[in-house]
Structures are given as C-alpha cells and as structure tokens.
Amino acid sequence: xxxxxxxxxxxxxxxxxxxxxxxxxxxxxxxxxxxxxxxxxxxxxxxxxxxxxxxxxxxxxxxxxxxxxxxxxxxxxxxxxxxxxxxxxxxxxxxxxxxxxxxxxxxxxxxxxxxxxxxxxxxxxxxxxxxxxxxxxxxxxxxxxxxxxxxxxxxxxxxxxxxxxxxxxxxxxxxxxxxxxxxxxxxxxxxxxxxxxxxxxxxxxxxxxxxxxxxxxxxxxxxxxxxxxxxxxxxxxxxxxxxxxxxxxxxxxxxxxxxxxxxxxxxxxxxxxxxxxxxxxxxxxxxxxxxxxxxxxxxxxxxxxxxxxxxxxxxxxxxxxxxxxxxxxxxxxxxxxxxxxxxxxxxxxxxxxxxxxxxxxxxxxxxxxxxxxxxxxxxxxxxxxxxxxxxxxxxxxxxxxxxxxxxxxxxxxxxxxxxxxxxxxxxxxxxxxxxxxxxxxxxxxxxxxxxxxxxxxxxxxxxxxxxxxxxxxxxxxxxxxxxxxxxxxxxxxxxxxxxxxxxxxxxxxxxxxxxxxxxxxxxxxxxxxxxxxxxxxxxxxxxxxxxxxxxxxxxxxxxxxxxxxxxxxxxxxxxxxxxxxxxxxxxxxxxxxxxxxxxxxxxxxxxxxxxxxxxxxxxxxxxxxxxxxxxxxxxxxxxxxxxxxxxxxxxxxxxxxxxxxxxxxxxxxxxxxxxxxxxxxxxxxxxxxxxxxxxxxxxxxxxxxxxxxxxxxxxxxxxxxxxxxxxxxxxxxxxxxxxxxxxxxxxxxxxxxxxxxxxxxxxxxxxxxxxxxxxxxxxxxxxxxxxxxxxxxxxxxxxxxxxxxxxxxxxxxxxxxxxxxxxxxxxxxxxxxxxxxxxxxxxxxxxxxxxxxxxxxxxxxxxxxxxxxxxxxxxxxxxxxxxxxxxxxxxxxxxxxxxxxxxxxxxxxxxxxxxxxxxxxxxxxxxxxxxxxxxxxxxxxxxxxxxxxxxxxxxxxxxxxxxxxxxxxxxxxxxxxxxxxxxxxxxxxxxxxxxxxxxxxxxxxxxxxxxxxxxxxxxxxxxxxxxxxxxxxxxxxxxxxxxxxxxxxxxxxxxxxxxxxxxxxxxxxxxxxxxxxxxxxxxxxxxxxxxxxxxxxxxxxxxxxxxxxxxxxxxxxxxxxxxxxxxxxxxxxxxxxxxxxxxxxxxxxxxxxxxxxxxxxxxxxxxxxxxxxxxxxxxxxxxxxxxxxxxxxxxxxxxxxxxxxxxxxxxxxxxxxxxxxxxxxxxxxxxxxxxxxxxxxxxxxxxxxxxxxxxxxxxxxxxxxxxxxxxxxxxxxxxxxxxxxxxxxxxxxx
Length: 1294
Hints:
Layout lengths: L9 H14 L3 H4 L1 H15 L9 H20 L6 H17 L6 H10 L24 H18 L4 H14 L5 H21 L4 H14 L8 H19 L2 H17 L3 H22 L2 H14 L5 H18 L2 H16 L6 H21 L6 H19 L2 H18 L2 H17 L3 H15 L9 H17 L5 H19 L6 H16 L5 H18 L2 H17 L7 H19 L5 H24 L5 H22 L2 H16 L5 H20 L6 H16 L8 H14 L9 H11 L6 H17 L3 H18 L6 H8 L5 H11 L3 H11 L2 H8 L5 H6 L1 H15 L21 H16 L13 H5 L5 E6 L4 E7 L2 E6 L5 H18 L10 H32 L9 E7 L24 E5 L3 H9 L12 E4 L10 H13 L5 E3 L5 H7 L5 E5 L1 E3 L9 E4 L2 E4 H4 L7 E7 L17 H7 L2 E7 L5 H15 E2 L2 E2 L4 H15 L4 H4 L2 E4 L2
C-alpha cells in the first residue's frame, strides 16, 4: 500500500550534515527529514553495482551515510544508539573496501575504536561458524548485496533481481541463529517478497511476505527498538492482502498492528509511516462498514502523520477530511481539507503521479464547494479562480476528460461573474469536447446538460439566439439521455425551459413558450415535494409569458399560484428569494392590470389587494437585489415601479405615481441594461409620464417631451422582429395622440406606428389586432377609407388567433370584448367605398366568432379524407381532444374523461393551426375552414337583412338571390340605438316585475310609462329600420301570403324585437308583412338549412323537461300544462321533471332527441352572456355548458323560459344566447324568448304553437317559424297594447 518516497539525494544530506556541524543541533540528525534524506541516498548507493572502485558520487554518498550514523550514535542516549553504531561500522568498512581514500583520519579512528576484532562481524553480531563463510559470504555482506540489488531494481524498474535478493537473504537467514540479526534479515526478506508481489505479479509472494514479517515480529523483543518498525511492516503487508481478498478480518488485524506501531514508535519517521498506513486502513473500514468512528480516526491518524513533512500524508489527510465533509457537511472539515491539500501540492517535493491527480482533484472539489456555498462572499472569486487552477492541474496530471469538463463548468461560472467572453468561449470548447468524449449515455447526458447551460449564458446583445438554439439542442438531448431521478435531468429540464423562454422573448418563436412550460413542469415534478424555489420561479415566469401570448386567464392564475409557492419555498436568507419575489410581484401586476379598468367593486378590491401584495413583495426584492448586477436590479426595480403605477391607477395616489417616475428614470439612466430590461423600463416610464401628462393639474411642460423620448427609446432598443416591438410602437402612438391638440387631424406618425405594430409576426396576436384596429380608426377619422378598411380587415383576420380555438370561452369573450364595433365599423367603411359585398364578408368574419368556431369543429372532412387520410385523422384527433375540454367556468361537474388539462389547450390549438396550414397547402383544399367568400355566403340565401350600425353610417345589407342590396338607415346611430335599448330594457323590467318595487301610485304611473316606452321602441324600430328594409326586400303581397324573412341585427340592436316592430298608430307591422326569424349569421343559417330534410318527416317523440317548482324561485304551474300539451302531440320520449331534471341529466339526454321542450325558469346576464342559464334541479344549465358542438342533427328546441333568445350587452355581436347554444347542440330550429314571459300566456302560446305544428303522425318541426308566427299573431290579437306579453317570443333558424 505504502509507496517509497523519493527526494534529492547527496546534496540534501550534505547540507543537513553541514547544518549540524555548524550548530550541533541534534534535530538535523533525528527529525523525519533526516530519515527521508538518508533513505534517498541509500537508494543511490543501492543502485550502484557492488564492484570496486565506486563512482565518485556513490563514494561520497557512502561517506555521508557513514557520517550520519556516527553523528547519531554520538548524540543518541545509551540504549538507543546500538543500531546507528552497527550501521556506522558497516558503512565505514564498506568505504574502506571500495573507496579507502574517502575515509579521513577522524573517521578511521572512530572505526578502529568501535569495530570488533573479527572484521567479519559488526558490533552486536555473531561470527559465522568456521568453514561456512568467507567475508563475502557473511550474513551482513549477503544482506548488503540484497539491498544493493533491490535498490537497483527500484531505480531501473527491473525487479527480476528480486529473486537473487531473495536467495541472498535466505542464505543469510539460514546461517544466522535466532536473534536480532535474523529478525532483521527476515524483515528484509518480507520487503523483497512484497516487491515480488507488487512488481512481478506473484500472488504467492504476498503470503510469503506476511510470513516473513510475522516471524520477524515474533522474533523481536517487546523492548527492541525495531519492534515498531516490524509492527508497521506486518500491518502494511496485511493491508496489501486486504486489497487482494477483501477480508475484513485481515483489515482488522492490520489496524491493530498499525495502531500499536504508531503508538510505540519513538522514531518520528516510523510513527508517521504507521499513522499514514493506519489512516488508509481506517479509510477502507469506513468504506466497508460506514462507521463514523473509523473515518474520524483516519482523519486523526493522518493528522498525526503530517508533522513528518511528507506531502503524501498531507494529501491523504486532505482526502479523508473531504470525505468527512461529504458526510457531515462541516465547513471546518472543508477548510481544513483545503489547507491540507494545498500543503500537499505546494510542498517542495512533488507528489507521485498516482497521488497528484486525486490531490489536485480533491482540492478543486473542495474549493468549488466553498465557492458555491456563498457566491457573494468576499473570497468567492478567489476560491473560484483557485478551483479552476486546481482542476486544470488535476486534468494535466491525469489526462481525465471529466476534469477538463469541470474546468469548462467553472469557466461558465466565472463568465457569469465577470462577463469575460474568453472564459465563455473556452468553457464551450471544453464542454463540447467533454460531451464528445463521453461514451456512456448518462455521462454524455450530464455533460450535455453543462454545455447547454453554458451556451445559454451568452449576453443577449451578442446575438445569443443562435446560442440559445444550440443550448436547447444540447439540453433536449441531455433530457432524452438522462434517466428519471438523475439530478442532472431536472436541472436540464429547468435550463431547457429557461432557454426556450429566452428564445421566445427574443422573437425566435412565441410557440416555444408552450415547450418551455412543459419542460419546467417536468422539472418541478421530478423534484417534488422539495421543489427548488428557482424552478417554481422559472415556471411562473414562463406562465406569465404564455399568458401575454394566449391571454388565457387560467394560465395567469396558475402563474400567481406557482410563484406564491416559489416565495414560500425561498424563506428569508434563501438565495432564490429575490428572484421569486420579483416574479411573484410581476404576476400580481399582470392580474391587477386586467382588473384596473373594471369599475365593479369586487374587481376594484381585487386589483388593490394584488397591487398592495405586489408592492410589498417587490420592495423586499429590491432590497435583496445585488446593486452591482444591473440586470437583477432592473428586473426587481422595474416591476416595483409597475406595481406603484398600478397603485396610483387603483387609488389615485399621486405619491405612488411620482415614485414610479423617479424609480424608472433612475433605472433608465443607470447602465448598462439588457435591451429587454431597457425597453421595459422605458415603456413603463412612458406609461407613467403619460398618466401624469393627462392629469392636467400636475402636468408639466417636460412630461410630454420625456414621455415621447421614453417611448421612442423603447422602440429603438428592440430589433424589428422582436415580439415586444408591437407594444412599444402602440405606446408611442398613444403618446403621439395624447400630444395632438383637440380638433387636429390624427397624427400620421401615430398611424404609421400602429401599422408597423400590427405587422410584427412574432408579437402577441391580441396586441397586433388592437394596433390594427386603432390604425383603422385613425384612418377612418382622417377619411382615408382604403387604409381604414385594410386596417379593419387585418384586425378581423387576427381575431382567429386572438381568441384561439380551444381557449376557454370566458377568455375568448373577454378578449373579443376589446374589439366591440370592429366588424360594424369595417362594414360601414366598405359600404362607403361602394363595396357592399365586402361589407357582408367583414360582418360575417368579425361577428359571431365563437359560434362560427364552434360550428367549424363539426366541418365535414370527407374531401380531406379522400385527399389526405393521415392529415384528416390527425386533424380530427386534435379537434376531438380540444372539443373534449370543459370550460373553466363549468367547474361544478367533473371534466369529461379524455379532455385535455388546461395547460395543453394552447399546445393543441397550435397543433391544429399547423395542421390547417398543411391541409390548405394541398390542391383543392386551400379554402378548408376558411371564411367563405360572398358568393358562397349569398348562394341560396335570403332574404336576410344584416342591420349594420356603424359610427360612419348605418345600413341594412339585404342578401337575397346571390346579391346584396344596401338600404341606408340614416336615423340609426350607435348613440341612438344605445339610448333606445336602455329605455326598452328598463321598461320591460318594469312590466315583467324585474325592476325594484315602488309603492302606489308611483308603481301604476311607472307601468303606464313603461308600456308607452315599449310602444315607442316598436314604432321607432318600424320607422327607422323595418319599414325601409321591408319596402325594398319584401314589398306587401296578397293578404294571407306570408314571405319568410330573416333579421341579423348587430350591436345593441340584437336586444330589441325587430320581429315585432310596428307603428304606434296600429298600422301593419313586421308580423303583418313577413314570417320573421332571426339568425346569428349567414353561415349559421346556411348550416341549419342544410340540415332540413328534403321531404318533411313527422316527429312523434320528444324529451320534455318540466319544472313547475324550483326551490328559491316562483312556481310555474303552467309547466305541467305545457308538458301535457306536448305529450298530446308527441306521446313518445322521455320526461325529466322535479329532482331528476338536473343539468347533467338534460345534457346527457339531448343526443338523439329530435325535439326537446323545456319549461322552466331562465335568466340571461347582460354583462356575461355565457353565464345565461336555465334553472334546473340542483343547479343551472348555462350557455357555456352547452357551448360545444354535438355533431348530431336534431330538429326543434322549444325553450319555454325567460330570456332564452336574449344576448348580452357586453358582447352583442357574438349572439351568446341559450338559443344559439341549443343550435350548437344540434337543434336547427329554436323557439325562445327575448325577455321574461308570462306563465299563463306561454301556456296558451304553447297550445297554439303545437296545434300549428301538428301533422298526421306527429308534428313537423320545420314549420316552427310559421307556427310561431301564427301563435304570436293570435296572442297579439288577444292582448292588444301588451307587446310586453306577446312580442318576446322569437324564432331562430331556417
């Protein structure tokens, strides 16, 4: 186990003896260094052939050895000087024989005084028996020859001479009787056998060595000065045997011998050797038994050995200290290990190659650990540099590519600290080489993980997108190679997610955010439940970025929750706390921004709570930020400024606004900032200055100039393709508009900025659409109508990406609300340009987006299957999974099996978009699921009046016989429609008991006024809309001849009863000219028409849902009467009533039903039409619950409930009603109510309706429009002056 230590020979021993002669200090003769120097000289002498005359250098060496032993004999006390006297006499005798001229008189006198009379004997030895040996055959001479042979073997590496040495020693042993001399020769023989074992590979030599050393020890008296040495020798070879057979018993015996040797040795060299090997033995025991006491004793043993000055002992001491550090994590052990290993590598004598590598490697690892333990410590940089130097030395000593790889890892760290591009370049080179050299897949995976991290560290201003792409490639391969549970795998996933986010942030591809989220989710999952705070923080950051692109509120909610967990996982003092707080505050800011303009008390309160929490978190983050790191400080400081700005907007706190401006101004003046941080800071500064500029009481002349400079600086900080450029350009346009004097024409610079903003492909679609819409409005105001139409059309085209397929309907509705009036303004401009067909197209494309998208899900893929069956299968699978998603609002029942989790929706939508692009590239499929052109829209259609209410003009676009006729409606304006709608809704609420109660006589006066308001509304609708339209599209015919006619109103006009419009004087109205129906769009009408059978087929069964009693609501006794009426015509089919009429039961029963009749309470929410519902047992059946295509074909749904045909004031053009929801569920004909209806009146209507539907064998559902027309006219006749009772009923369908 123990290797011979080599040092400089003759010169060092001569200098040592000179120092003794100068001061007579015995330490120069007795310390461990003297023994090492003497041993090295012995090696030199032993390497010389035993012939005379000796070479001069060898003779000098022999002389110096003799002097050393004579001096030691003189200074050692009696009883401890015997060995040195014997050695001195033997060496002098050899010198007299081989180089007599080197023996000075003084040395000769000493020899004569102490040499025995028999020159064949040395002091204390026995003379050979007579006739058995000559002087050269004397045991001492034989032993000396053996020593010389083994010395030569060690010098040349040719150990074949060991056999000759063995023979010489056996001869010496054979002729030497038991006693000290024989024990010495046995010890020498044991060493020769050990060399035979180690160098000649003779396994039998090791037991022989053990036997020789054991016999030598057994022959040594307890008080013999050589006993500690012989204890050491036996313990040493027993440790060799353990390395062969692994027998713990052998190790235990070795430990006992070495303990005794170390404890009893008076010679420091022997004590050091014994302690060193004991340390090795104890280290072996630690590795076998994992007993802490063994490792602790090993540390102590090596510590006792170190005063000998042997650098090997320092190295081994450092190694076991590092092992104990790994066990206990004690910084004291780590620091002591560093000191020991530094002493080892810093010694004058270099370490053996076998030990140099582990020593440098261990030192590097400990320095690296100390650096990583506190990278902000004052000495951290020095530790990092020292660790790098140590790894380089270790790699040089061993050639180990793993160590060179680690150099690359630490160079990456140093680059992050100092930004030296040379460090990063060398790191990437070394890490690439390390990955290329790895044969084992797991090793390659770990090295690729390090390479990917390094590649992603490049500064963005250096064009790092390519490096991030390379990083993603490396990290993706690493993830694929590494097995689950490998720590490098979750680190790779985390770094992959970050790199993908950076690529998306730099404009590479926004879709990468989905992959980034998936990678970071996997990283979090693989470390759960002890998820690192930085992983959670990174996931939250990506979710925020995804929300910016997708506008999916579920994603933002998840981001806030994840980042709250990140803050909790990073308590005070945690290195990741600052980043977690910054990201958490930023997410709260985003959520507050959504609610800041919402005037509802609940939304305002939520925004204030989020803002307060954000300010608190971000103030702490700023306090924790490293002021020397501009990027870190900019992120936390910039987010704090945003939170303060939002506080001002929610509370009006001017101090918060001023602090915002001061903070952002300081950030933008400090530098250098990354372009990404700089443009955000400048953007937020511009936003704050804009608010202060608009607040005339606090405006300053400088604010406008500073605001424009900030916004222009933000634009200039970004390349043309950067996704944030759209936001920055839009902000600049806002500032330019704000500085335009009232009454002036729109600033052309603002229009140009918005046009450019809309054209950035990588920007979020919602921002691009808003920019295009704004640009169109400015062009419209400037009477640049072609540019206006182009802008409106661009915004409409982007709606498909804004409210993407698969997004939660609530989120789609929220986003579409930003574009109120877009389609109608576009149509008005198209009409003004003389292109009514284009007007029809933009109305179709820009209205009813949600309904059209839902219908598209059931598009017939026959042509696609014929041309591309694989694409058809893939598209159908994606569409099916998207349609299986249950909206977030419908959380009262479990999500259907097979539906995607929320985080998959955007990925599926992107997959669908890519498949569509592939499909449309195929011959003959370029129009697959594209909005149809006018010729297709108008084919077989009509007459349909699209009543467009626009700011520029209002018209009815009557589509019939493949053409369109424009009917100007000059009395109809958005403002007039809004006022009329408000009056009508209030009047109906009074007449149907929905308004707050008042006492008499005010109540009676209010009723009279409400009936008058209803009459005025119907009269205005007749004069302003219906009469002009019908005069052109449906001139009066013969009495009793009823022409079918469809209304498709826009805007708030959807809330008014166009079908019941009539003059106040009692003259003919709409019901007297046509059979009126409604349609949400031309496409919806076309789909419903295509479902009508060519030959009318009677229906004899229906699903009846009847709830005469609903807890908490007024009873509906008429519901039971209606059920009997329906069953009188349709005897077959199921009935759900009472407790069985639940929402789930109704939805489950709808498929396969040709007709459904629901008699229950209904309610619409004008502010949230998706929340409109039927009140069923156990809970509501809402619009959003039905907002999924069924793929089935049903005939008629009679919704005998209040407000089932009423849309919403928030999204009137989306026609989000229970009626359209039932059309989505497959019912082509729907009868519903525009407002609250009377229970007894509805019973009468039901009887008249089904009587008119009746045919032999059941009912004809496709007579629904005519039957309802008949029934309503009957009610009108029975209830004159009570339009509130009869005019609510409406028909939807073909």
